[in-house]
Amino acid sequence: MERAKKPAAIPVSPMQPTPQVSITDDNSRVAASLPTGERVEVLLYGATVVSWKSANGKENLFLSSKAQLDGSKPVRGGIPLVFPVFGPPKADHPTGQLPQHGFARISRWEYLGKSSSESSSLPHSKGDASVKLDFGLSDSMIDSSKWGYSFNLTYSVVLSQDNLETSLVVRNTGSSNYDFQVLFHTYLAVDDISQTTISGLEEAPFVDKVQGAKEVGPAKKPISISSETDRVYTLSSQKPITVAEQGTPRYEITRDMLSDVVVWNPWIEKAKGMADFGPEDGYKKMVCVEAGSVSAWNTLEAGDTWEGGQRIKTL
Fold first, then answer.
1. Which residues contact 206 (CB under 8 A, 6 or more apart)?
2. Which 3 state secondary structure label does DSSP give 231?
């Protein structure tokens, strides 16, 4: 016998689209994309971000056409990770046996997995708002004869609709203190370097490495690039940095626990001299704006943890 009053059917919400993560067949690269179209790709070699595209398909990172992506040498372009030393190490320092910029960018990292955060559950939501990829590296995975400290690194890459975040957690898992430096060596893609300016560093003093590490006072004006540029700015605040093209802001960079910013462009002659830099005039299409902590050493005591990161927003 049918009931006179049937219970109302429970409405079923439509499934929201979710981020997609894939790993190449040779287990060398992890890619993630959002339902809205944004995409990021990370090599396990160096945990190097080699591509970050906006929803419209526009690439935001410069990758040299001659970059070696097979693990034979550091990647020229994207976002190489510098740790535990910036630049050529001094022979009398504990990092003295390491290669330039340390071992993080030339080590094979472990992919630890992904997580996503949900966006609004209101109608017309486009699905999950972000996806995070985690990568790990520890002292057991490197040649400890050149740097004999115990550590565990967790590198996180977070892709959202207008942002890319990279952050590093450093854990001292040993019984000895050690010093380190860290830098996100970000190669930003630009349409024309002659029409590009960088603001937010006007009040910061800097070391000019092109002029023999000369210490220079604040420039009091935005940066424009018309020759080889290699500067280390030290900031007293976490003020955002803006990269603009033809006066229109394209990127905004915010930093956490990173007091320094390196601005680099090889220009004509240096670009010609780098075997892995291409095309030859590629310097016109890129500028490195690198958030880091490199003007001094960070001391990490036994058992302690350090964390820092950057967020790059497309405007």
1. 215, 216, 219, 231, 232, 233, 234
2. strand
C-alpha distance from residue 259 to each of 9, 42, 190, 295 (Å) = 58, 25, 24, 8
Could you say which of 118, 290, 301, 307 is catalytic? 290
290 is catalytic: yes
- Residue 124 is among the residues annotated as catalytic for this protein: no
| Catalytic-role residue among 38, 41, 165, 185 | 185
Interatomic CA distance for residues 250 and 196, integer angstroms: 10
Q: Which two tokens stand for residue 23?
A: 């790993």
CA separation for the pair 244, 161 (Å, rounded): 20
Phi, psi at 223, each rounded to 5° = -90, 130
**pTM, full prediction:** 0.92
What pLDDT digit, counting tens, does each position of 272-306 carry? Answer: 999 999 999 999 999 999 999 999 999 999 999 99
Q: How many angstroms separate the CA atoms of 255 and 307, rounded? A: 11
Tokens in use for 216?
A: 């220079």
- In this structure, the chain runs to a length of 315
